[in-house]
Amino acid sequence: QVQLVESGGGLVQAGGSLRLSCAASGNIRSIIAMGWYRQAPGKQRELVASITSDGSANYEDSVKGRFTISRDSAKNTVYLQMNSLKPDDTAVYYCNADILQYYRSRPGEHWGQGTQVTVSS
Questions:
Q1: pLDDT at 52
Q2: Radius of gyration over every alpha carbon of the chain, rounded to an integer in angstroms
Q3: pLDDT tens track of the chain, all 121 residues?
Q4: What is the DSSP string of 25-77?
Q5: Which one of 2, 41, 79, 90 counts the least CB within 10 Å of its CB?
Q6: Cα 54 from chain centroid (whole Å)
Q7: What CA–CA distance (Å, rounded) separates 109 from 90?
């Protein structure tokens, strides 16, 4: 079994910064990729940023230049540094990971419970 535990959400004024963290634990042989999704009220969940095991990062257009994703492979942790936050960034942010577990032949997708980010104008 795998657990993803997120932290770092909260309330911030527009222009401010937050740093999200997500730590994976449990039956982990290797982590293929980790990422962050978000879902605002009435909207579909969307990919914000992702990073592969070799450090290749991908960003949604609206966060490029403002958000930075990074990972600490030794700690099985991914971070999302969010700067210059806007009210449109308000959403529940979910950690996502593609993980190969021991005794499994294929990686599986895992989700965290979500953390609320609210940006006030």
A1: 96
A2: 14
A3: 999 999 999 999 999 999 999 999 999 999 999 999 999 999 999 999 999 999 999 999 999 999 999 999 999 999 999 999 999 999 999 999 999 999 999 999 999 999 999 999 9
A4: EES-SEEEEEEEEEE-TTS--EEEEEEETT--EEE-GGGTTTEEEEEEGGGTE
A5: 41
A6: 17
A7: 24
The pLDDT of residue 19 is 98
3-37 b/e with 16+ CB inside 10 Å = b?
A: ebebebbeebeeeeebebbbbbeeebeebebbbbb
What span, in angstroms and rounded, lies between the C-alpha atoms of 58 and 60? Answer: 7
Q: What is the pLDDT of residue 94?
A: 98
Single out the residue of 73, 72, 70, 74 nearest to residue 82, CA to CA.
Answer: 70
Sign of the CA dihedral with 120 first, then 112, 60, and 78 last = positive
Sheet of strand 67-72: strand arrangement: 2-7, 18-26, 77-82, 67-72
